[in-house]
Design goal:
Blueprint lengths: L5 H26 L4 H32 L16 H24 L7
Helix pairs in contact: 2-3
């Protein structure tokens, strides 16, 4: 008898991740008015993470597509990316999110920083 329910675990991780990302985004938006320099530093850190993940996923998808073998996922519990084309698309999207976040951190969010 296995007490571990895989489907419940995946659903908990998924909803917990969405909740955590939503909380972080909400606190970033709320702190935008009070500490703009802190928001710029957070945006730069987020940009570094997005760029690194995007480059990694993009390289992973490109190499998987060029080899032509079976598409191996690094973790068993991640079933979001199923083909090399999806990996390339996710990598490009993460790189775009990183570049956008980096531009917003240097240009600003529409309010003068003091």
């Amino acid at each position: 008898m296995n007490p571990w329910n895989q489907e419940l675990f995946e659903q908990t991780i998924r909803y917990g991740g969405v909740l955590a990302v939503g909380f972080l985004f909400g606190s970033l938006v709320a702190s935008m008015n009070f500490r703009p320099n802190l928001v710029a530093m957070i945006a730069q850190g987020k940009a570094i993470v997005f760029l690194a993940l995007g480059i990694g996923v993009l390289v992973w998808g490109t190499i998987s597509m060029s080899v032509g073998g079976p598409f191996d996922q690094p973790f068993d519990w991640i079933h979001v990316i199923r083909t090399p084309a999806e990996a390339i698309a996710w990598g490009a999207g993460l790189i775009t999110a990183g570049v956008t976040s980096l531009v917003f951190s240097f240009v600003g969010f529409g309010r003068d920083r003091s």
